[in-house]
Each structure stands twice: as C-alpha cells, then as structure tokens.
Amino acid sequence: MAEPELTSERAFLDTARAALSRMYADVVDRDVQVIGGEDNDERFTNEANQRAKQLRTHALLDLPEVPLFFGRLDYEAGTIEDLDQIYIGRRHVHDGTGVPLVIDWRAPVSVPFYRATKSDRQRVLMRRRYGFSDAADLTGFEDEPLAGAVDDQPDQADAFLRAEIERPRTGPMRDIVATIQPEQDDLVRAPLHPSVCVQGAPGTGKTAVGLHRVAYLLYTERERLTRGGVVIVGPNKSFLSYIRKVLPALGEVDVRQITIDELLTRPAAASDDTGAERLKGDARMAGVLRRALWSYVGTPTDGVLYSKGSRRYRVHDYEVVDIVTDLRESTRYAPGRNALAQRIAHVVLVRMEERAESPDDRVQNAVARSKPVKEVLDSVWPRVVPEQVLHRLFSDADFLAAAAPELTDEERTALLWTKPPRSWKSTKWSFADTVLLDELEDLIERHSGSLGHLVLDEAQDLSAMQLRALGRRCRTGSATVLGDLAQATTPWAAGSWDLVLGHLDKSDGVVAELGRGFRVPAQIIDFAARLLPEIAPTLGKPSGVRTVADALGIVEADEATLAAQVVAECRAALAGEGSVALIAADDQVGQLRDAITAAGLETALLGETEDEVDTVRLVCVPATLAKGLEFDAVIVAEPARIVAAEPRGLHRLYVVLTRAVSSLQVVHAEPLPGPLVGATL
Ligand SMILES: Nc1ncnc2c1ncn2[C@@H]1O[C@H](COP(=O)(O)OP(=O)(O)OP(=O)(O)O)[C@@H](O)[C@H]1O
Questions:
Q1: For the whole prediction, is pTM greater than 0.80?
Q2: Ligand 1 atom 12 nearest Cα
C-alpha cells in the first residue's frame, strides 16, 4: 500500500474529524428557540425543542473508539453530481459549506458498498476498505477493483469479513456496519411495513441485523418512528448490556432497550411452577380471560325509574335487557359500561320528548350519571379492575370452570391457588400473571398509543400471551422479530414463526431465513448441530463460513479433577487474546467460579453485577444467561448437567455450545449427552 496515499487518507480522516467537531459545536452554540407563555402547549414545544437539541448533540459526539468512516467507493465519472469518490461512515459529515465529506452508510449512494459485485458493479470502479486500530487510528486500506479484468483476484471481501469477525472481543458487542453481507443488507433495508421475522441459526447475525435495521429505519422514517418510539426487547439485562453500544456507535441514541417485564407496567413479586407458567402463557388464556371478564355483566331484572320534579320516566326491564344484549362484547368492557348509561339515558330522553319536553345533551348526561341509572350499572355491569378478575379466576374453582371450558380438569387445577390470597389487593402476582393482567386491562379499556417499531430478539422464547401484550403495544407500528426455533428454551415457546406473528397480530409479516453462521467456526457448528435432529428436526443444518484450526476440544475429567481441569482450560484460554467465558449449569457455576478465583485468576459471575463483560476478561456464565452472548474462547463444563437442569436442557446446551468465536473446550466428568457421543474432532 502506497505510503503517501495512506498519509493522505489519514489527513482526510483528520479533516472529517475537525468537521464533525465543528458540526457539534454549531449545535451546542445554537440557542434553542423558546416560546413565551406557560400553558401546556408552549411548555411541551419548548421541552421538545430542548430535547431535540440534546439528542442531536449526543448523536454528533465523536466517539474516540469509533472510526468516522470505514469505506470508500470510487464511482465512474458523472455517476454522482460533483463527486467521483465517496467516503462511507456511520453518519453524515459535511464541511460546513454543504459539501459532504462522509456519507451515511444508510444513504442510497452507499448501497453499492454492500451490494456491488464484479458482475454487477453498479457503476463502481473500486471499493476501498479501511483498517483501524482499537484507538480508531487508520492503519491501512485494501482496494477491491470491480472494473476491468479482475476475475482472478482473491476474494478480498471474505478476508476482510473474517478479520473483522476474528478481531478479539473486549467489552460489549460492536456494530458490523463495515461488513454487512448482502443477505443481511436485504433485511436491514427492508421497508418499515410489513413486519419482518428472521429465523437464523446461532451467529448468523440476527441481533446485528435487528440493530442495524433500527438505525436504517430511523434514517428513512425518522419522523414516523420517533413519534411512536422504537423499543428493542431482549431476553435479560446481561444481553441488553452486551448490545447497548451498537446503536449509539451508529449515531442513534434515542432507542429504548428493555426486557419484556420492564415494558409491562406491573412489577412481579411471585413465581409460578413451570406447569402453571406454561399454561398462563398459553393462547387459550385469551379466551378464558375474555369469558371471565364478561361474566361480570349480568342479566337485568329491573328497569329504571327516573324522577325529575314530580315527573317519572320508566325504562322497562326488557328495554335494559335489549341494550345490554346489544352492547355485550361488541365493545370493550369500560366503554360498554359508559354506553349502557348513555343508552338508558337516551330512552329517558325519548320519554321526555314523548311528553313534549325538549331536553338537550346536558340532560342526557345528567340522567346517565343519576342514582337510579348508577344502581342498574353497578348491579348489571359493575366496574372491575384486572386484579379482581384474575384473583377470582385463580381462587374460585366454579368461576374458573365456567370461564375455561377449553382447559382440562388437570389444567384448571394447576391454575388454582392452593392457598388463595385473602384479597386481590394483597395478592403478589407472578410475571406470567402480570401478562394476564395486561390482557385483562386491554379487554377493559383498549391499550392506547402505538410504538413506531418494535424489535423482539430471541423471540422464539416468548409465550403467546407475552406476544399478544407486545403486539398491542405496536398496533399500528411494525415489528422486527428475531430468533431461532432451535434455541427455544422456554416450555411455553410458540414453536412456529407463523404462530408468533399471529399472536403479535402481524400475520402479514414476512419470514426470512439467515443460513450463514459468522460467529461460530464450522467444526463447532457441526458439533452442536448433532443436537438438531432431536431439538428442531425441521430446521436445516447451519453452515459456518469459517474454519479455525483446533477450534474444538473435548476434555474428559473425573469428578475430583473437573474443577482443576476447568481452571487449566481457563488459564490456557487467557493466554490467547480476547474474551473468555466459562459456561456451566446455574447450580454449578458458582462452585467453579470459586475454584477459578482460588487459583488466582480474576473473574466475575455474569448476572451478579451490571458491567462485568466490559471489565473482566474471564466471565463465569450461568447457562441460562448465555443466550445471545459470545466470547472469543468458551469453556463449557459438564454438558450433561446443563441438559438435566431443565425440561428443554438439550436446547439450552445447543445455545451454550454456540457462543464461541474461535475456540470451544468441553470439559466433562459425566458421560456426554447421547447425540454428542462419538463426534470426531
Ligand atoms: N456481516 C458481518 N460482519 C462482521 N461480523 C458479523 C457479521 N454478521 C455477524 N457478525 C458477527 O457474528 C456474531 C454473531 O452475530 P449475532 O450475535 O448478531 O448473531 P445471532 O444470529 O443473533 O446469534 P444468536 O442466535 O446466537 O443470538 C457477532 O459478533 C457479529 O458481530
């Protein structure tokens, strides 16, 4: 690579940096227009302007460890006005006079960076990719000529991709914006509607695609999305902590990343056994709750007698019956109650008119709020809160039986509390209960507002009732659903993407599949895939894009030497570069952590504190927290124990075995689970 050219590229990087700081300073210095006045509208506008400025400043902050550009396209002359060459980066940088220095990767002119090939070069003459040090210093570049007789050149894109994947990991997940692959790019740039659902084997880039898709949609549909908001739902806090820096690195700082229980409004304070939890997540519960709620509406036996002065107006019992029959289940519960009051009042009004009176709307409202009408409402259509209904459902066997004819006797028994809490006010609800309460709340009063876009990661694990709760939070928005059916570890998992989309109320969603595994070396994928015929027989075997020498090792120990062997493997892994994880069954990981610490190695237990992954090279990971994470080197202890720990233990093992980027060592004293026996390394 020509030294003068590298020098001039570095100089250009400095110029772009200086321009970005100028853009930043301009926004900081610019006064936010303040509208006078103190009413709500004015206050809202002033706050919104202030917030917009804050977000813009935040987005323009030069992150020292994130290079400002990563590629360059040299176009045929005349392809783009005034520019034959564009630098592509994470955000747009201009020189202050309107001349772009760095073009946002999401802009249409950047697309050929990801899509142009030698046979379809899209007017691109040459693609340049830059290499950077960890401190974001430009260390080199590689050119990929697309024009002319270039067919015999080695595929530089693959070499670059491989180098990028194998760059040792320190801290949280990085963006992949420099090396998004064409099949991923299709999904990243798919339009906002319809919703997209991505099935993909471990390490095919689903999470990466979801995050880049959010950044892309915020670029193309910013106004629409910011109005409703964008939320990413992940499986747990450790996972969210792991992905938290990707979007800010792409300049997007206003996206909520939360777990589903944080999205629902009620906190959980109790737990269920697995049987009850599975049942409470079942789609049939939607019908049970609907019937339970509507059973509060009774059949009127009395009419209404409304008096005004000396006059009396009667609404007959059969008239009230007709109104209730008409309203029942044709509207939500609370508006139905209001409508009943109004319809009774309307009959009273008609009676008044029959007597040549001329009442107006105010009279109708007064009648609707009057005592006799209220008495009928309270007896026929009482006010209820979700907690009251659910408390009765789980403590009153007859009430449950009437509401749940589709459940078996055993299922109903599993739902009933053995010791019902005294009242709904003092009940401690489980997480699955809070999802049911959410459903009831929506049956009573429609959930208002809609997110602009919702991303569900590890969506294969969500129950039907959870999916319904999520779906009603983005009724008019769209969703990106990411997951792998083979990694479904919850007993209540829906089991098919069509069902998942149906429960979300996004049946028009398009299901796509990613098949190339980037994270995991081929030998490790092949090893883990031995589990697939048992855990997901309908899924094809994933392919690994890389092989890595000595990527997989199986170490036999005995009970007495297991911990020492694990320590030895951890020590060996630490001698290499990057992040290391020991993954073991939840009830064994603490004891192995103690052995590692006693041997003088620094480590942290994932889940114990928030930011362990950032600060310590060797992390001890309980098997149930491994989902979605990755490490350069992984040591898995005692697979049989991971399998035995839960009903879907083999699925869990599949997750655990597919976390390594470069090396996986399996240490065991108990026999390996059946499908893994006899694997050749
Ligand atoms: N195009 C790419 N360029 C560079 N790295 C990539 C690319 N695609 C994926 N990767 C890397 O592969 C790894 C796996 O990606 P990701 O976590 O998104 O996969 P996943 O499909 O969500 O996996 P899992 O099912 O295990 O959660 C990450 O390190 C990611 O950065």
A1: yes
A2: 519
